[in-house]
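Hey team,

Filing this mostly as a record. A colleague (T.K.) asked me to run one chain through the structure pipeline before their review meeting, and I want the input and output archived in the tracker in case anyone asks later how it was produced. No errors, nothing strange. Just documentation.

Input sequence:
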Amino acid sequence: LGLIYLQQAEDDSAGTWLRRSAEAGSSDWRVYDGLGVIESHHSDNAAALQHLQQAVALAPGKIPTPQLHLGQALFGSGDYAGAETALRAAMKDGDIPEALNFLGQIQAKRRAYSEAIESLLRAIDPPAAYDTVAKLAMANGDNAVALNYFERAAALSPVYFVAAHQGAAIARERLGASR
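Output structure:
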């Protein structure tokens, strides 16, 4: 019943039933995965990580979902190295766009911009990939990198043209101020 509530995005009801299943000693990985997802939504990172680690341990080897959710929870808690490891494990049998998107963001946060672009290009359209990395580079204070990627996003798509040029103008302004 908890899993049905979870599918319907009724976290409170799902949590009640999933906790009951866990307390009864369920060996179904989906129970712990669901609890971890709900706890992540409520920023209870310690409980989320504990339940997601249980889900990973219980899940059959070919199921990437608990690793993906563990990676997301680690990302949310700021453990980027752990998140990257979990996301790569989730994709051991093939690309998962959601995992690639998080992986690209992690890589950009650690200033591995070309790796970030490669990951994001496997998950989202090129202008969005360049725009995402540009924003993260600017957040890192790497304004020259940001400017380059904003310009690429603008050149690839009219959808990003205005926003990318606005981002590029901010990056240019910051570059001028830092000289």
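Quick notes for T.K.: Residues 11 and 126 are 35 Å apart (CA to CA). The chain has a mean pLDDT of 91.
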